[in-house]
Amino acid sequence: MKGGGGRLAQQAAAPLRLESRRFRLLSIVVGCFVFCLVFLLSSRPDATAFDTVSVSPRASFSGARRPAAVKTLRTAGFGGDFHVDIRQQEQGESRGQLRQSVEQSAGDKTATEWVRDTVIVEERSDDAEASEAAEPEDAASNSDDQAAQGAKNKEVHDDAAVTTAAAAATTTAQPAAETTATAPHRPEEKARAAGGQTQSKLQEKEQPAPQQQEERHEPARSGGGDHQHQQPLCDFSDFRSDICDLAGDVRLDANASSFVVVDPSASGDGQSHKVRPYPRKGDETCMSRITELTVRSSSAPGAAAPPRCTAQHAAPAVAFSIGGYTGNIFHDFSDVLVPLYNTAHRYGGDVHLVMANVASWWLVKYDKLLRSLSRHPPLDLAAAAAAGEVHCFRNATVSLRAHKELIIERDRSADGLATPDFTRFVRRALSLPRDAPTRLVVPGTGSNKKPRLLVISRHRTRLLLNLAAVVRAAEEAGFEAVVNESDVGNDISEVGKLINSCDAMVGVHGAGLTNMVFLPPGGVLVQIVPWGGLQWMARADYGDPAEAMGLRYVQYEVGVDESTLKDKFPPGHQIFTNPTGLHKKGFAFIRHTLMDGQDITVDVGRFREVLLQVRNSLAQ
Asked: Is 192 helix (H, G, I), strand (E, B) or coil?
């Protein structure tokens, strides 16, 4: 019985020992699983424990074993955080290669010094960034090869996603032009950006050129499109005129009085401006007479489709108006011809002149000057509109570059032009022969020549009442005196030849003095300034331009006894005691009372002294 009982006990214990061994084996398996799980979670703290991925388990575990792609490094000597890409290439890279890349970026510091001053304050994994930005791949793909390819593509995407704002002064392993600038995505990055600290991504491996190109443009696309970086079509900063410089596919829709710059991006956020192409933009009365042109890009909000071209031009266009105050020779030159030369000279005649507010008589009068600026016939905007024409150019300038009255300032001219260049252009266009005054004494001949003096005679306002006495005084001073009545209908070539034959010119303040542009350099202009504190105006309109043209300038200022104002106002009136105080009444008062409201009888004795000074200056 005892032996039988022992055998029964052994038979009962055998299954228990078998179950115990199974339990220990299961415990070992579970322990290993838990250990592996803890290891994975500790190596990837930002990963979800039971994240569902669209790649195979093999790809997932290989990604989990991959080291962090980006480490944020804080350096003692650089004054900021740096995001360093430490992901190894497929072939594998040594720490020496990483150190070499860092050394190239650290400037004077060696790699060892740079690493010694560096503390790792944050680690980030490519997969963490990819889980936020990348869309899930096809869940049906279970092959290991497809999963590996998907992981590789995500690495490329992660490079662009974690790229941060790179300062221009930061040196990287790539050229500065290839630096990728993006807005910070993480809160701590935004905080550092707000604090003005420099952020840069130092890449351990050099990417292919196409991939770099794609990454450089990606921030612009994510930021709203390249249209944000478009250059302004027009410049409104000048005090005389608004200028629009257009390039590309430029279409003049004459019927709509608009220049359309075709924008291939069609972003819907283009530009649209209204411009009156005449250089008196502060004068509302004048500018109300000027045709308004629209300058816009085809992508402007609510804009119609670009018009189809009816004429293609290889030469550029310059658009301007000959309305406003034209018809007055001063404004013909100061508002149109001088700034037109400054704007169109660069094209050497191969330019289309697009004109608004055209008057045919004006084109006839200045035909030679216009032909010298452009070998193409003028394009009348109104006539083109009536014909429904759309003219297309590669470049166009809307409005003219105007500086001071009758002056081109060399330091402001895009082509380095100056006023003497314009007067030389006028003399050549009109075939005016003289580039210097008369030589009064011819050596070896014993003969003296008289200089010619042109006296401008006005016939409506600011009349020179004792003109005959002035002519006699000029002849007594040794001049050959010539009288000319400036008239708007005079042929410009004939007027130019007459004045170019003279050495000096005299006249009361007014548009007729503009004829000084035909005088030879070195000649003299004498301006008689009416009473009323008009010295500043006389100087700005004719004195400064005369000197800019290379002429000598003399200003004769009228006294009260020489003005007919003494017969219109009582003695002691403010117009005699403080005329400049009346200027606050505005230009209409100045023009009506002080300019058009007086005639002049010069003191011949005092004026003769001025003429003698002019004669002596020419003799020198």
From this structure: helix
